[in-house]
Specification:
With about 140 residues, this protein is of the alpha+beta class. The protein has one domain: Sufe protein. Chain: A, CATH 3.90.1010. The chain has helices at about 1-15, 65-80, 85-100, 120-140; strands at about 30-35, 40-50, 55-65. α1 (about 1-15) packs across α2 and α3 packs antiparallel against α4 (about 120-140). The N and C termini lie far apart (about 40 Å). The relative contact order is 0.20. The model has no long low-confidence stretch (mean pLDDT about 95). Bound molecules: zinc ion. Zinc ion binds next to α2.
Length: about 140
């Protein structure tokens, strides 16, 4: 169990140090959503581009703690290539898992599963949620 926790920590730190799909683009095709978490200074912007019901690109930019920034990076990798329908199911399930609510364990959260332990730390739940909430808003706006 301890090894598993170490692995989780490694994934989070790795995405924090080497974020994927970072940097916003100036492109009308993208929907941009910005969310702040005043309790810890997290400030995240998510951009998504959808085409024919498919998420073809997802970007993030911002600053914050390792949980917040890494979860934004993991989010983009998880969502690119998914249909918006599937992406919503995955995001909804992830947010339920983080928020300590019943969720469907059969939905594959891929790398995002590493945030499961966050729910033990109520102060960090928001950190792990805001990028994903911004993402859901961005696909709802489209
Ligand atoms: Zn935070």
């Amino acid at each position: 169990m301890e090894n598993l926790e170490n692995l989780y920590r490694e994934v989070i730190l790795e995405h924090y140090k080497n974020p994927r799909n970072k940097g916003l683009v100036q492109d009308q095709e993208y929907v941009t959503v910005h969310i702040k978490n005043p309790s810890c200074g997290d400030d995240i912007t998510i951009q998504t581009k959808t085409l024919d019901g498919l998420i073809v690109d997802c970007r993030h930019e911002g600053k914050g703690c390792s949980i917040c920034c890494s979860s934004a990076s993991v989010l983009t990798e998880t969502m690119i290539g998914k249909t918006t329908e599937k992406a919503k199911i995955v995001a909804d399930n992830y947010l339920k898992m983080i928020g300590n609510k019943p969720y469907d364990k059969l939905v594959d959260l891929e790398e995002a599963e590493v945030y499961e332990g966050v729910r033990q730390f109520p102060a960090r739940i928001k950190c792990a949620s805001i990028a994903w909430q911004a993402f859901v808003q961005s696909i709802d706006k489209k």
